[in-house]
Design goal:
7 helices; alpha/beta; 7 strands
């Protein structure tokens, strides 16, 4: 398997979780960060008060930002260039799949991913929980929580720590059905 990982995080504008208001991507290759992208996204939908409070992203901030289809043309080559990695990855994978489906963007039938929350449970089983902020605090990683750029960078930092601990990422590789918007129960 390639030693290239695409750590990503998305923020959403409302409870439907089928659009993206921000995305952060941190590319890890051969144990080092080689690229980072962060951008706000115009989700072309309403914002819920909860999401505004959580992320700090408002409709005004995204009004002149690219829509997901515009952005996808730029980030698709990156997203397809390695194993996708996220913290609580089924959430981020579901939002990505729903967004692709909403806009009618055909990418792949499925994508492989790994979850840094699951890996954290294996590496640090004695922590009180394995939330992103808990793991970052324990490992001394910088984090501005619910900022997609910071969250993706922190996710990449966790991944590099786990690999440094000897964790085999392949053990945590899963398959996500992008058409049906669900993780496969069987381990690949």
């Amino acid at each position: 398997m390639s030693d290239r990982y695409i750590a990503f995080d998305v923020e959403t504008p409302n409870y439907a979780n089928n659009r993206i208001s921000a995305i952060g991507i941190t590319v890890v290759e051969n144990g080092a960060v080689v690229d980072e992208i962060y951008t706000l996204v115009n989700p072309e939908t309403h914002f819920g008060n909860f999401n505004i409070r959580l992320t700090g992203i408002t409709p005004e901030q995204v009004a002149d930002k690219p829509t997901f289809p515009q952005l996808w043309a730029e980030i698709e080559p990156i997203m397809g260039s390695g194993l996708l990695v996220a913290h609580n990855a089924p959430f981020d994978m579901a939002v990505l799949a729903r967004c692709l489906n909403f806009y009618g963007i055909e990418w792949r039938t499925y994508a492989y991913y790994a979850c840094t929350c699951s890996m954290g449970r294996a590496c640090y089983p004695n922590l009180k929980n394995h939330k992103l902020n808990t793991l970052c605090e324990y490992l001394g990683l910088d984090l501005i929580h619910h900022n997609a750029g910071s969250d993706s960078r922190a996710c990449a930092g966790l991944l590099m720590d786990y690999i440094g601990q000897g964790l085999k990422v392949e053990r945590f590789r899963r398959r996500y059905d992008l058409v049906q918007c669900r993780a496969k129960a069987t381990y690949i």
